[in-house]
Design brief:
elongated; alpha+beta
Length: 280
């Protein structure tokens, strides 16, 4: 007989040990003996049952805000942008390093940026290339640079929840799978909104036989830890333990109580019957 033992593990980053400070995406929870290996356990599964996560991370961060030019580097301010605010920001930063009079425009039909200046200029491979639509070093032609691809302000599309303490068989193409991936949650809320995730029927075989401390790391699509700007999140895990029991063991922990209650009812009925007979 197989016993199915379900347990909820409620995690709130507010009550965690924060390994990366205000980023709030690499945390520890000091539980004790959540799972202890015994010979009766056949296997266990783990799932992210639900999650409430703030979209407090930015599209432009220190990981993608740098642009190297022939006049030196510019660094855009971290934040969320639309095409108009992005053009204002990059123009200001370029002017600050000597590109006075530079004009930045966007083609409303294809989303491609154009940079126009009074003299020849160059952009060199740097982290902002993935945003402005460039892949290789480029020098202006007739004092104009036209980007190759559209401006990309889509931002992060998935939250990849990982744990060393909860190893599974899941895979991530960015790192070709190492078992740490618990779940990948779609970012379906706008900036400054809330992602509300509810698991329908998605669980993974758990490789760990013993669990105490639980670590949680939340990565973006580029396998970089997200920066939640000190805003907390909540995740509920569902741990299910499958045990093989002897035939004379009860599958349900309430079975003993039910059996005891039935015996009490029988004894009470027998006593009432005896009392009736004596009165007769």
């Amino acid at each position: 007989m197989i016993q199915e033992d379900k347990r909820l593990i409620v995690l709130n980053s507010k009550y965690s040990i924060k390994n990366n400070g205000e980023y709030n995406s690499d945390v520890l929870f000091n539980f004790k003996n959540i799972l202890i290996d015994t010979k009766e356990i056949l296997y266990s599964t783990i799932a992210v049952a639900s999650a409430i996560i703030p979209v407090s991370y930015y599209i432009i961060t220190e990981n993608n805000n740098a642009l190297e030019t022939n006049n030196g580097f510019i660094y855009l301010s971290n934040g969320n942008y639309n095409s108009n605010s992005f053009i204002v920001e990059i123009t200001e930063k370029l002017v600050n390093i000597g590109f006075v009079g530079i004009i930045v425009t966007i083609n409303i039909n294809n989303g491609i940026l154009t940079f126009e200046y009074a003299s020849p200029f160059s952009f060199f491979i740097s982290s902002l290339f993935s945003i402005i639509g460039l892949k290789s070093n480029i020098t202006s032609i007739n004092n104009v640079i036209i980007c190759t691809y559209p401006l990309n302000l889509l931002g992060n599309q998935h939250l990849n929840i990982n744990s060393n303490a909860l190893i599974t068989n899941n895979y991530n193409s960015d790192i070709l799978g190492d078992g740490q991936l618990l779940n990948s949650i779609l970012c379906n809320a706008p900036p400054y909104g809330i992602i509300e995730y509810v698991n329908i029927n998605n669980f993974s075989i758990l490789k760990n036989k013993n669990i105490s401390i639980i670590d949680i790391k939340i990565y973006d699509d580029n396998n970089l830890l997200l920066n939640f700007q000190s805003i907390d999140w909540a995740i509920t895990l569902e741990l299910t333990i499958y045990r093989k029991l002897k035939e004379n063991n009860n599958l349900n922990p309430f079975d003993n109580t039910l059996k005891f209650d039935k015996e009490n009812d029988k004894n009470e009925n027998d006593k009432n019957e005896n009392d009736k007979n004596e009165n007769d």
